[in-house]
Structure formats: structure tokens, C-alpha cells
Amino acid sequence: QVKLEKVLGITAPGNRALACDPQTGLLAYPAGWCVVVLLNPQKNKQQHIFNSSRKAITTLAFSPDGKYVVTGESGHLPAVRVWEVSERVQVGELLEHKYGVACVAFSPNGKLIVSVGYQHDMMVNVWNWKKNVLVAANKVSSKVSAVSFSDDSYFVTAGNRHVKFWYLGSRPDLQVNSTVPLLGRSGLLGELRNNFFSDVACGRGKQASSTFCITSSGLLCVFNERRLLDKWVELRVSQATCLSLTEDLIFCGCSDGTVRAFSAVDLHFRCTLPRPHSLGTDVGLVDASQLFSSKPGSRFPDTVALTYDPASGWLSCIYSDHSVYVWDVGAHGRLRRGGKLFSALYHASCVWSVEVYPEGGGGASRGAGPGSFFTCSSDSTIRLWNVGNHNTVNRNVLSHVGTALVGHSRAGPSDPRPGRGPG
């Protein structure tokens, strides 16, 4: 029987497709069309969830207790599916969207799921997923890029010229007989009304009354409990894409490999975190002292998704060249620039060919021991992989799953768009 052992790649389109289990630190992200990878970054161990519908997974999220993962998919009549993490089996299927699911989220008590459809789908749905009941719904005309549940029974959507607060009635988890209309109230955007809000996160703990957003033009904004745009700061980047927060900290992922940290209390700047390898350099270099030294004018892959685990202090980042880094940046509000805990460099584009290294080929001296194989890609690289537990020489210190790379790391399809520069 053939069994999937490891997936060498990632297809997360943004922050809506990267999640961290708040209980264990397990990472979840889609790979290929119908696989969810569950990664333990400390042990470099994978488990996999298979979507038997063969539809592409576009978004996912963990339940607060870490026992379940909810996924959304694209294609005709897409489903919102709920999976049990321990057994990796489907335990729920919610059918109401028509074209695709843009983002999903669990409520803080884990009883409800909100799913937002693609722009042409135009639906925001709230489900009692264990009873397979749609308890509330409404239409949304804007393109929505993100959703976040607050600790106080409302959730917020963000997108193109759109920040909207949605309020649920009393005990919606008990609603079983009919679907009630969702009550939505737009955020008061003021002079920022023409921006694209690329991500949103509701405050936690003492900041529970605040809602944080970032704009693609490079602004970090906070809305107060009256939905008023209270303040904002410039990130001084050409583009901002994603954010993750705790009660104390806000991490903002931006273009050119930049991640900036701010205080969640007053938006004061804390620090800029390390960047990954620069584009156009030979990432197959063995000398660790050269890893993060860059020449003037170097470009870096964009940060397209990030998630922070406050228990371990690990910040996981996905970049536009399909590389994955996990940084140890400190826990319990004690922020440090940190070091690299885990990294993997995957192909940034289509893989055209795979060749297994022949047994007895004498490749151990070249870093190609048993279990090694080559891949070539339209990203203009040839890569040598070894997925066994063999000790090979010349192992790539930038990637825990590859051994060597011929060519140069290149950006993926999401190069920075023009926007606000340093101010």
C-alpha cells in the first residue's frame, strides 16, 4: 500500500491558508490541490489530511481547542469541511456556497463557523457545524480577504474598501429551525475608505474591544468599540499583506521579506524581525556565516502569510518564493530578534521532472545518499532532495528537507505591487 510520507511544497495563497494550533503549535497549510499538511516544525514531522472531493483548498483554520480544522475550497458548489485532527477524518460537510470559499474561522467557543464566499458568491454564512445547520447569513458585495472572530460574539470581515462588523443574536448556536439575517455594520473608514484591507484580527485580552487591520498600501490601523478608525501608523513598506497578534504584540508581514512588530496597546514600534535569504543568491551555500548577509540592493521574497504561537514564541512565515521559516522570537511579550528554528525551501513554480538518484551511484560524497532525487522547475532551479534519515554531507543549512540547489532562488508569482514607500 502506497502511503504519503512527506509533501515538498506549499500552495498557501495568503494568511487565510496558514493556521497554528494554539494548544500544540502544530502548523496547517494546503499543498497541491487537495492535501492539508500538518507540520510539527520542531521535529520536522508531517501528517496529512486528504480532501476526497479533489477540489483545491483555499483557506483553513484551527478550532480554539486544536481538535478540529475547518477548510474551504474552490470550484463548483464548494464545501466547508470540518476535520478531526487526531484521526485526520472528515466530521462535517457544509454546503451553501456556489463558487468558492475565501476565508473561514471558528468562534471562540468552537461551536460556530463563519465562512465567506468569493466575490461572485456574495455570501457570509454562520454555521452550527455539529448540527449541520446554517443559523445566520447575509450578502456582501465587496471582495473579502480576511475574517476574524472577536471574544465577544461578533466577527469582522475585511477586503476591498471594506471593513464590516457582523453581530449575532443571543445564543445562535441553539438556532436550529431557520436561518436568520446577519446584522452587519460598516466600519467608519474616514480618509482610508479607498484602501484595500488585506487582513484583520480582533484584539485579545485587554485589547478585546479593538480591531486591527492592515492595508495593502502599508498602514496598520485600529478600530475602537464604536467601529471608528481610531489611529494608524505607517509600516514604511511598499505593500503589507498579513498580520498576527496576541494581547501584547502585533506582527505585520510585508513586501521584501519584512516583518515588523508593534505594541498592541499603543501601536508603538517594537522591532523589525530577520529576513529570509535574499533572491538571486546561491542558497546552496554551506557556510552558515553567509546565510543572512546581503549585498546592497538585494531583494527578498514577500511575506505572504504569518502566524504566531504565543506559548512557544515561534513566528511562522511563508514567503512568495514558497519558502517556509519558523523564527523563535520569544514568548510572553518578551520579544527578541530571534533565530531560525525551522526552514524549508520549496520550488516557487511548476515542477517539470523528477529523477531518482541511482542506488550505488557513489553519491554520498556529493550529498546524494539513499533516498535522494532531483527535481527541475520553471523557477529555473534544479534541486537535490533527501527525505530519508541519512546523514549526508553538504546538507543545505537553509532547508530542513533539501540537500542542495543548482540555480538561484527566485520570487514566486506575487511580486510587490507599487504602493506607499518609506516615509
UniProtKB/TrEMBL annotation:
WD repeats: 373-395
GO CC annotation: cytoplasm
SMART domains xrefs: WD40
Residues covered by the MABP1/WDR62 first WD40 domain: 17-345
Keywords: WD repeat
Keyword Transmembrane helix: no
GO biological process: negative regulation of canonical NF-kappaB signal transduction; positive regulation of JNK cascade
InterPro entries, per database record: MABP1 (IPR055292), WD40/YVTN_repeat-like_dom_sf (IPR015943), WD40_MABP1-WDR62_1st (IPR056161), WD40_repeat_dom_sf (IPR036322), WD40_rpt (IPR001680)
Protein species of origin: Tetraodon nigroviridis
Gene3D superfamilies found in the cross-reference section: YVTN repeat-like/Quinoprotein amine dehydrogenase (2.130.10.10)
Name of a matching Pfam family: WD40_MABP1-WDR62_1st
Name listed for the protein in its UniProt record: MABP1/WDR62 first WD40 domain-containing protein
